[in-house]
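Example 316, ligand fe (ii) ion.
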Amino acid sequence: MTAKVDAVAGETAATVSAHAATAATTVSRAEPEGAAVPVTYGASERPPRGDYSTARGDYVCDQNWSAYTPEQHDRYRRLYADRIARLPGLACDEFLDALAAMEAADAIPDLDALSIPLKATTGWTLVAVPGLIPEDAFFALLAARRFPVTVWLREEDEFDYIVEPDIFHDFFGHVPLLFNPMFADYMQAFGRGGLKAAALGGLEYLARLYWYTVEFGLIDTAQGLRIYGAGIVSSGSEPRHSLHAPEPARVAFDLERLMRSEYKIDTFQATYFVIDSFEQLFEATAPDFGPLYARLQRQPSHPAGIVLPGEKTFAI
Ligand SMILES: [Fe+2]
């Protein structure tokens, strides 16, 4: 769980929007004083981006929606139009249908307003946060069915590439599937698992699970492989790469195999894991991970991009 954010600077646009994104993987614990003190990266000199001065003890802050400028709303509108145009036939129907129903194409979304239909559908609410937050705060919010969304929007020169997650990545990438009941339950189960993982030595494995599912997951559908991962859908060029490039390994989801697999943070992914359904994902998180973590700690990791003998893969 070391900080790796700097590593992505200057690299392919594609991956990045994502990854920073895993708050769970990139931020070390906050200072004991709490939310008033900015979080710090474990291995980076660069402070996290965002104003932490108004955040409360759980890192939640006010969105202050009226403070967004016309230029920022316009940039969000163009980001939305650019990314949505790349997704037909590539993103899964659950994502596209929910995104369309949110009617959030025209302006930076008001998180409180969008929480009303979300709460009515799956019991989740959206909460504003200043930026990346410590993993324990992140897990606690997910366990309470509260999804943290960064309040700030990227600058114009970050249109194609951004290192840390902004409101566009967090909202466009993550929120649509929170309307899916099974995926919504999976996210809460992930948060609950995260609260237990540190004591079990499992944070690294849980970060891989988040990365390869929530951020970079693919799903097998009757129409063929589709994207559901937030890091892919919010990226400019990874959608097509993830489904149509010949290089990456597209491997059938297997929890233990996935948790043994390293991932790329500075290029397109070399491996994607493919689920059959969101139900499969949720059921994989049902068992106690304690024995699994103990087993994983005795085994070497697999490098990204390999296919193991006998493993089910998906051709493009
Ligand atoms: Fe993300």
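Summary: The first strand starts at residue 125 and ends at 129.
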